[in-house]
C-alpha cells in the first residue's frame, strides 16, 4: 500500500462536514425567517408613527415571532377592521381567550382593539433601528423605475470599442499617402 493512499480522506471528510454544516445552517435560518404570510412564524414590521417612542421610531424594523405573549411584551397584531394595517404596541393585560389589552408606549390611552387568535402576528424579538427606511425605499415604485431606467441607460449607452484603443491615432494634418525611397548603395 502506498503511504499517501489515505491522504485525501481527511480533506474530503472536512469538505463533506463543511457542506453539511452549511446545509443545516441554511435550514435553521429558513425556519427562523420563514414569513407568517407563508405559514411560518416570523413577521417583519416597519414602524410608522410615534406611538411606540422612545422604544421604536418611524423607520425602525421589528422582527416578531409567534408565541404566547405576556404582559410587558411588545406585540404585533393586525385587526380585521384596519384594512390590513399592522399595529405594534405593548401588552398591558388580557389573555388569549378574552383578547389582549394593548397600549403604545407614547400613548395615554388603551388601544380600542383587543386582538386574539389569528389577529396576533407575534411578539417583538429583534429591533433594527432605521433599517425599515431602506426596506421601504425598496418597495417604492419610484425607486424601482429609477433603477430600471439606469439599467436601460447603461445597456444602450454607446461604449468605446476596445479595437479603437489599439488603432494608431490619425491626425487631421494628414496630406495623403507618403512614400519613402530606399537609398541606393
TrEMBL record:
<feature type="domain" description="Peptidase S24/S26A/S26B/S26C">
    <location>
        <begin position="39"/>
        <end position="116"/>
    </location>
</feature>
<dbReference type="GO" id="GO:0009003">
    <property type="term" value="F:signal peptidase activity"/>
</dbReference>
<dbReference type="GO" id="GO:0004252">
    <property type="term" value="F:serine-type endopeptidase activity"/>
</dbReference>
<dbReference type="InterPro" id="IPR015927">
    <property type="entry name" value="Peptidase_S24_S26A/B/C"/>
</dbReference>
<dbReference type="GO" id="GO:0016020">
    <property type="term" value="C:membrane"/>
</dbReference>
<keyword id="KW-1133">Transmembrane helix</keyword>
<feature type="transmembrane region" description="Helical">
    <location>
        <begin position="12"/>
        <end position="34"/>
    </location>
</feature>
<protein>
    <recommendedName>
        <fullName>Signal peptidase I</fullName>
        <ecNumber>3.4.21.89</ecNumber>
    </recommendedName>
</protein>
<dbReference type="InterPro" id="IPR036286">
    <property type="entry name" value="LexA/Signal_pep-like_sf"/>
</dbReference>
<feature type="compositionally biased region" description="Low complexity">
    <location>
        <begin position="169"/>
        <end position="185"/>
    </location>
</feature>
<keyword id="KW-0812">Transmembrane</keyword>
<dbReference type="GO" id="GO:0006465">
    <property type="term" value="P:signal peptide processing"/>
</dbReference>
<feature type="transmembrane region" description="Helical">
    <location>
        <begin position="131"/>
        <end position="157"/>
    </location>
</feature>
<dbReference type="InterPro" id="IPR001733">
    <property type="entry name" value="Peptidase_S26B"/>
</dbReference>
<keyword id="KW-0645">Protease</keyword>
<feature type="region of interest" description="Disordered">
    <location>
        <begin position="163"/>
        <end position="185"/>
    </location>
</feature>
<keyword id="KW-0472">Membrane</keyword>
<keyword id="KW-0378">Hydrolase</keyword>
<dbReference type="Pfam" id="PF00717">
    <property type="entry name" value="Peptidase_S24"/>
</dbReference>
Amino acid at each position: 500500500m502506498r503511504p499517501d493512499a489515505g491522504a485525501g480522506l481527511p480533506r474530503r471528510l472536512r469538505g463533506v462536514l463543511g457542506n453539511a454544516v452549511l446545509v443545516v445552517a441554511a435550514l435553521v435560518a429558513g425556519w427562523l425567517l420563514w414569513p407568517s404570510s407563508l405559514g411560518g412564524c416570523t413577521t417583519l414590521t416597519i414602524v410608522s408613527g410615534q406611538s411606540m417612542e422612545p422604544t421604536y421610531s418611524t423607520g425602525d424594523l421589528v422582527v416578531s415571532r409567534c408565541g404566547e405573549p405576556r404582559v410587558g411584551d411588545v406585540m404585533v397584531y393586525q385587526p380585521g377592521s384596519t384594512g390590513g394595517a399592522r399595529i405594534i404596541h405593548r401588552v398591558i393585560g388580557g389573555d388569549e381567550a378574552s383578547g389582549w389589552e394593548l397600549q403604545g408606549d407614547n400613548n395615554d390611552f388603551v388601544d380600542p382593539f383587543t386582538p386574539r387568535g389569528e389577529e396576533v402576528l407575534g411578539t417583538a424579538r429583534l429591533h433594527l433601528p432605521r433599517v425599515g427606511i431602506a426596506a421601504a425605499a425598496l418597495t417604492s415604485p419610484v425607486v424601482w423605475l429609477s433603477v430600471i431606467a439606469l439599467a436601460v441607460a447603461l445597456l444602450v449607452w454607446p461604449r468605446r470599442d476596445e479595437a479603437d484603443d489599439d488603432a494608431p491615432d490619425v491626425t487631421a494634418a494628414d496630406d495623403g499617402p507618403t512614400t519613402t525611397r530606399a537609398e541606393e548603395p
